[in-house]
Amino acid sequence: MKSHEWFVEHGVDYATGTLDADDMATFEAHLAQCDECRRQTSRIEAELAWLPMGLAPATPRPGLRRRIIQHVLEGKSRRLQRWIAPAALAASLLLAVGAWYAGNARARGLEDQLAGQQARMAALQDTLSIMRQAGRVLQTSVEVGGQRGGLVIFADEVTHRWNVVIHGLPPAPPGARYQFWFICADSMVRGAEVEVDPGRPMMFTTEMPETGGEVMGAALTMEPVVDTAGPPRGKKLAHLML
Amino acid sequence: MKKPRLESSTPGAEPGTGLVGLTREASLRQRLIARDEQALVELVDLATPWLLSVAQAMLQDRDEAEEVVMETFRTVWQNVTPAGEGHSGLMPYLLRVARHRAIDRLRGRRRQDRKLTAAAFEWSQDSFAAVEPDEAGHPGWQVHAQVHAALEALPSEQHAAVRLAYFEGLTHSEIAAQLGIPLGTVKTRLRLAFTRLRTALAGLKEWVL
User: Fold this and answer.
1) Are residue A169 and residue A83 in the same domain, yes or no?
2) In the predicted structure, residue B15 carries a pLDDT above the cut 50
3) Is A59 inside a domain boundary?
4) Range of A123's domain?
5) Same domain, yes or no, for A83 and A36?
6) Which of A110, A133, A156 is at the close of a domain?
7) Contact criterion met (CB < 8 Å) for A53 and B195
8) What is the largest distance, in Å, between two alpha-carbon atoms of chain B?
9) Residue A158 and residue A17: Cα distance in Å, rounded?
10) Is B94 an interface residue toward A (CB < 8 Å)?
11) What percent of chain A has pLDDT over 90?
12) Do A140 and A235 lie in a common domain?
C-alpha cells in the first residue's frame, strides 16, 4: 500500500508516462479517488505540453495534407455509416414485424424500396457535400447537332473530387459516345464515359487521375465507340481550364 | 500524382510572434466544433510540421509517423470541445495526443519484440537543432526556440534521460537497463530535469494554439 506522499512524489513520472506498468496501474487507481493528485497531474501535463516543440519542425511530404484531410473526413462518414447501419437494421426489423401481420411479400418490397432510397440518399448527400464545399465552379456551353447544353464542374478542393454535370445534350449518334477527359500537365487522361439520358442531366463524381501530372482542366469529346484507350481521336466538344 | 492546387494560408498567424492569438484560436476552435472543414485545413497547415516532427523523432519511421499525425487530427476533429471544457489550447492537445499515439506504437513494438535493443537511440542531431534563421517565420518558431533552449540548458545526463523517457517512451526500468545505471539514479535525473523544464516552460502558458 503506497502512501499519498508517494503519489505526490511520482506525479511527474505519471504525467510523462515513465512509470513502470504496475506503478502506472496503481497510480491510475489512486487518481480515480484523489482530486488533489488529479489536479496535480493535469497541471504537470499542461506545463510540459509544449515539450515536443523542442524538436525542429519537419517538412511534410507532398500529398500528406490531402491524405490527412481525407483520413479525418472519411472517419466522419464512417461514423455516419455506423449510425445508418443500426438505423437501417431497426427499420428492417420494424418492417419485418409489419410483414408478419401484413404478409412477407409486401415487407420484402418495402425493404428493397428502403434500401434503394437509402442508397440514393447517400449518393445525393455525397454529391451535395461536394457542391456545397466546392471551392471552384467551372462551366461552359456545349453544342451537339444544333442542340445546346452545358458542362459544369464543381471542384471540391478539400477532398480533391469533382462533381461533373453534363446537361442538355442529345444521345450520342450510333458508333460514337461522349468521353470526359482530364487535361493534365503531361497528357490527356481518360475519365468517365458519359451516357446521356435525354430530358435529365447526367451527373457523376470523380477523383483526380493517378497519372498524367498536374490536373489543369477538363474536356468533353465525342469518341468512336471502338476507342477505349489512348489519347482522344474524336471531336472536341468543350474544354475548361482551372 | 499532382492535384489541383489547394489554397494554402493560415490567416491570422502572426509570423515572428509565435502561433496565433487568443481571438483566432477561439474562432478556429468554434469553427472546428461547427465542423468547418476549412478550419480543419488551417489547423493541419499550422500543426502538421510540429506533430510530424515529434512522431518521426519517436518512431524513426516516416510512414508510421504520418499515420500517427493522421490519427491525431482525426482524434481532435472528433473530440474538440469548447475552450475551458478540458483543454488549455489546441496545440498542446494535439501534441499530447500525437505523443501518446507514438508511445502506444513504440510500446506495441516492444511487446512484439520482447527485448530492448542495447544500442542507444541514435537521435539525429537535426531533431534537436535550432530552427534555421530562414525558418524563423514559421508559425510556432518562437515556442520552439524557447523549448529548445530549455532542453539544451539541461545537463547532458538529464537531457539523455529526458530523450529516452519523453521522446522514446521508455519507462524508468527500461532507461536504467539501457543506460546501465541504477533505477534510483534514473528517477532522480528525470525528476530534476522535469522540474527545471516545468519552470522554464511556465512562460508558455500564454500560447494557446
Assistant:
1) no
2) no
3) no
4) 64-133
5) no
6) A133
7) no
8) 57
9) 36
10) no
11) 8
12) yes
The C-alpha cell that represents B140 in the structure block: 510556432
Average pLDDT over residues B165-192: 90
Using CA atoms, how far apart are residues B5 and A183, in angstroms rounded to an integer? 14
Q: Do B172 and A60 touch (CB under 8 A)?
A: no
Report CA-CA distances (Å) from B137 to B1, B12, B132: 29, 13, 10
**Residue B158: pLDDT band by 50, 70, 90 thresholds?**
very high
More confident residue, B54 or A114: B54
Q: Which CATH code for domain B22-118+132-206?
A: 1.10.10.10
What confidence tens digit (pLDDT) does each residue in B160-173 have?
Answer: 999 998 888 888 89
Of B140, B141, B117, residue with least CA distance to B130: B141
**Residue at grid coordinates 537535426:** B126
Q: CB–CB of B194 and A60 under 8 A? A: no
pTM exceeds cut of 0.80:
no
Q: Tell me whether residues B126 and A209 touch, CB distance under 8 A.
A: no
CB contact under 8 A, B3 and A71: no
Optimal mutation site among B190, B194, B205, B208, interface A, most CBs of chain A within 10 A: B194
ipTM at complex level? 0.76
| Whether residue A219 sits in one domain with residue A143 | yes
Provide the number of structural domains found in chain A: 3
A13, A64, A66 ranked by CB distance to B190: nearest: A13
Is residue A34 over pLDDT 80? yes
Every domain of chain B and the residues it spans:
22-118+132-206
